[in-house]
Amino acid sequence: MKIILGSASKGRKIILEERGFSFDVMSSDIDERAIRDPDPEKLVLLLAHAKADALIPRIKKPALLITSDQVVLCNGEILEKPENEDEERAMLQMYTAHPAETVTAVVVTNTETGERADGVDRGRVWFRALQHEAVAQIVAYPRTYELAGGFSIVDSLFMPFIDHIEGERESIIGLPWVLTQRLLSEFT
């Protein structure tokens, strides 16, 4: 069955490509800030399901639709994509004192039957202290504002500052592979 990645995320696309999948990409363009929940796991599930809901009417042929969402938890605070330089600076400052925990939901929908399977995965990233020059570079980097928590473990700008990670690399990037594979297998 055809696979559709319901995300404009470069990281999610790369993960599927690395696994040899052939797929189409569609973006839901929902207003993510309009959907709120104080529980990070519930929030990412609500967002991933909302993305699927927005895309299903646009899909005309049977497919397995993969949607996902991610937030970062740091010191008990939910962090999404930074909206401005001040938010990004505050996030980077938090990461020097506390690990960044990614909370990522994946929803797989069979568009022919409407059946869905979902789950959540977590990972952690510990950063080294960021020097003033590095912070200035990161804050000036436009891609920073497209990323949950304002960082990417596979971007050369951030890589030198990553001390270590706990959990699945793909989960921290935005599409936990073990979970995604299990959810896809429910329909194949």
Descriptive account of the structure:
There is one protein chain. Strands 1, 2, 3, 4, 5, 6 and 7 form a seven-stranded mixed β-sheet that branches. β3 (63-74) and β4 (77-79) form a beta hairpin. Helices cover 32% and strands 26% of the residues. The chain is elongated. It is of the alpha/beta class and 188 residues long. The mean pLDDT is 95. It has a single domain (2-185), classed as Maf protein (Alpha-Beta Complex). It is built from six helices and seven strands; from the N terminus they run βαβαββαββαβαα. The N and C termini lie close together (8 Å).
List the topology elements.
Blueprint: E1 2-5, H1 10-18, E2 24-25, H2 40-55, E3 63-74, E4 77-79, H3 85-97, E5 100-110, E6 116-127, H4 132-140, E7 162-166, H5 169-173, H6 177-185
Parallel strand pairs: 1-2, 1-3
Antiparallel strand pairs: 3-4, 3-5, 5-6, 6-7
Q: What's the quick description here?
A:
The chain is an alpha/beta fold.
* Main sheet overview: 7 strands, mixed
Number of helices: 6
CATH class categorisation: Alpha Beta
Spans of at least 5 consecutive residues with low confidence: none
Question: Could you report the average pLDDT, rounded to the nearest whole number?
Answer: 95
Q: In what range is the share of β-strand residues?
A: 25-35%
Q: CATH fold name, please? A: Maf protein
Question: What would you say the CATH architecture is?
Answer: Alpha-Beta Complex
Order of helices and strands: EHEHEEHEEHEHH
Query: What gap, in angstroms, lies between the N and C termini?
Result: 8 Å
Helix content: 25-40%
